[in-house]
Amino acid sequence: MKKLTLKGVRVLACSVCVALIVLLSLFCFLQDPAVSIVSGESYAPIYKGSEEKPQVALMFNVYENTDIVNGILDLLDDYGAKATFFVGGCWADDNNETLLRILDSGHSLGNHGYFHKNHKKLSEAENISEISNNHSLVFAITGYNMTLFAPPSGAYSKITLQVAEKLGYKTIMWSKDTIDWRDLDVDLVVKRATAVENGDFVLMHPKAHTLKALKKVLDFYKEKGIAAVTVDALIKDA
């Protein structure tokens, strides 16, 4: 039987600790009557930020391709650009270092559910589980309190929106979609990501062709005097 090293013991202990925090958090959310949904209007999704300045927000939905995520971070650093990374919990759990690097580089983190489920079809309890489990995991790893939720595939119901609000989240959609998950074409990604107006949320994913397109996109923004900022910053004054 293979001996467990000290490092292995620490990793195992950390994993157990994170798992316990997630389970405890879920139990507390389910027991808290404040989580029960109520009628209201403030939970409407946000599609765009402030239009007062030449600024856009790059959004990266992340469940895969950690090497490309790191390449995106390298390129953003080169241009002094910021972005928001909406991370899936099952990815974050396996990529702690990259998760921390996102924050250390001045970017923001958003919640993208734990297992990339169709939130439109989920019950109230299932919506709570997907969002809160991811929140607890990311907080345990980074100490960062996510406040922005991007439903996977943009699928949500009224229950999803109400649950997100009750859990302290704003639901974020997008105004410009590069559709890079479907169209594996650098030029198409560039075209869609540069046809922007002030306040646009530009949706991307960590794909190899998207990384190639990103340099051209950032060159265009620089030439046109468009700042790439986080979603948080863009909605702050909206």
Structural write-up:
The protein is an alpha/beta fold and 238 residues long. Helices cover 47% and strands 13% of the residues. It is built from 9 helices and 8 strands. Strands 1, 2, 3, 6, 7 and 8 form a 6-stranded parallel beta sheet that branches. Strands 4-5 form a two-stranded parallel ribbon. The radius of gyration is 18 Å and the shape is globular. The model is unreliable at 6-14 and 24-40 (pLDDT under 50).
Quick description:
This protein has helices spanning 6-31, 66-79, 89-92, 96-104, 124-142, 158-166, 186-194, 208-224, 231-236; strands at 55-62, 83-87, 108-111, 148-149, 170-171, 176-177, 201-204, 227-229.
Mean pLDDT: 88
β-strand number: 8
CATH superfamily: Glycoside hydrolase/deacetylase
Alpha carbon gap, first and last residue? 59 Å
CATH topology: TIM Barrel
Assign the CATH class: Alpha Beta
> Measured on Cα atoms, how large is the radius of gyration?
18 Å
Q: How many structural domains in the coordinates?
A: 1
Order of helices and strands: HEHEHHEHEHEEHEHEH
Largest sheet: 6 strands, parallel
Poorly predicted sequence stretches spanning 5 or more consecutive residues: 6-14, 24-40
Shape: globular
Percent in helix: 40-55%
The CATH architecture term is: Alpha-Beta Barrel
Number of helices: 9
What brief labels describe this structure?
six-stranded parallel beta sheet, 238 residues, 9 helices, two-stranded parallel sheet
Give the topology.
Blueprint (H helix, E strand, L loop, with lengths): L5 H26 L23 E8 L3 H14 L3 E5 L1 H4 L3 H9 L3 E4 L12 H19 L5 E2 L8 H9 L3 E2 L4 E2 L8 H9 L6 E4 L3 H17 L2 E3 L1 H6 L2
Parallel strand pairs: 1-2, 1-7, 1-8, 2-3, 4-5, 6-7
Helix pairs in contact: 1-5, 2-8, 5-6, 7-8
